[in-house]
Amino acid sequence: MGLEVDGLAIGYGRTVVGRDLSFTLAARQVMCLLGPNGSGKSTLFKTILGLLPALEGEVRLDGERVRDWSRRRFAKAIAYVPQSHRSFFSFTALDLVIMGRTAHIGAFAMPSGEDHDVAHASLARLGMDHLATRSFPELSGGEQQMVLVARALAQEARILILDEPTASLDFGNRVKLLREIRRLADGGLGVILSTHDPDHALQIADQVLLLHQGRALAAGSPAETVTAETLRQVYGVDVAILDAGAGRRVCVSSIQS
Ligand SMILES: Nc1ncnc2c1ncn2[C@@H]1O[C@H](COP(=O)(O)OP(=O)(O)OP(=O)(O)O)[C@@H](O)[C@H]1O
């Protein structure tokens, strides 16, 4: 069953950003959300998370409408990493990751030894445990991004929603994070991530939703959705999808006009 997005219309007040958006995300699946700047990826995430009201349609988890859920129940089910996060308070990276445990900690209780262990393990899983005692605001943009992903892992939710998680990462961390996302899904999580790189979809996605002018231009497997034709339509540039061997396809752009 998993997460069902059913006929969602998204936007702000009377301004509709997207409509007729439907998909189902099962456990063990990675879904990539592709679409140009301003196409509504973050708006869709915020609507799924209940941070923005749906203009039409609804979001269900295992058949239940999540609109009625408490934030605590929601946080145990779905973890979210926003596109950017500013913290002006001098928390350490570990403190911030422990905050991901909030839904598991009693209202007036302190984090337990187990909460600390889970937080450390989440940082270690991403190869970021060396940052544990560093002040979060002093970390680089990419380091902060990895710590925020660790915080989402510490939440131990079943579904992970990541808004452009690779945006400020160096080449190595980008590959490591994509690999970790695939492993997390193989281990039982459902993951949705937005990205500007069609190659990410080709590398790790089971399904792709391609947003264009307020609608889903294509939805389905990477092979069906990430094509030279759809990418030309959406981004207005010529690309070739090449066979890189071992069943891998890669997207190559050309700067020649
Ligand atoms: N708070 C807001 N109030 C009104 N309009 C907004 C608001 N936030 C975003 N928008 C508009 O909604 C549209 C979709 O924005 P959104 O941030 O969802 O796009 P996106 O696909 O995530 O973009 P990007 O790839 O650039 O991050 C844009 O036209 C944007 O200007």
From TrEMBL:
<dbReference type="GO" id="GO:0016887">
    <property type="term" value="F:ATP hydrolysis activity"/>
</dbReference>
<dbReference type="InterPro" id="IPR003593">
    <property type="entry name" value="AAA+_ATPase"/>
</dbReference>
<keyword id="KW-0067">ATP-binding</keyword>
<dbReference type="InterPro" id="IPR027417">
    <property type="entry name" value="P-loop_NTPase"/>
</dbReference>
<keyword id="KW-0547">Nucleotide-binding</keyword>
<comment type="similarity">
    <text>Belongs to the ABC transporter superfamily.</text>
</comment>
<dbReference type="Pfam" id="PF00005">
    <property type="entry name" value="ABC_tran"/>
</dbReference>
<comment type="function">
    <text>Part of the ABC transporter complex HmuTUV involved in hemin import. Responsible for energy coupling to the transport system.</text>
</comment>
<keyword id="KW-1278">Translocase</keyword>
<feature type="domain" description="ABC transporter">
    <location>
        <begin position="3"/>
        <end position="238"/>
    </location>
</feature>
<protein>
    <submittedName>
        <fullName>ABC transporter</fullName>
    </submittedName>
</protein>
<dbReference type="InterPro" id="IPR003439">
    <property type="entry name" value="ABC_transporter-like_ATP-bd"/>
</dbReference>
<keyword id="KW-0813">Transport</keyword>
<dbReference type="InterPro" id="IPR017871">
    <property type="entry name" value="ABC_transporter-like_CS"/>
</dbReference>
<dbReference type="GO" id="GO:0005524">
    <property type="term" value="F:ATP binding"/>
</dbReference>
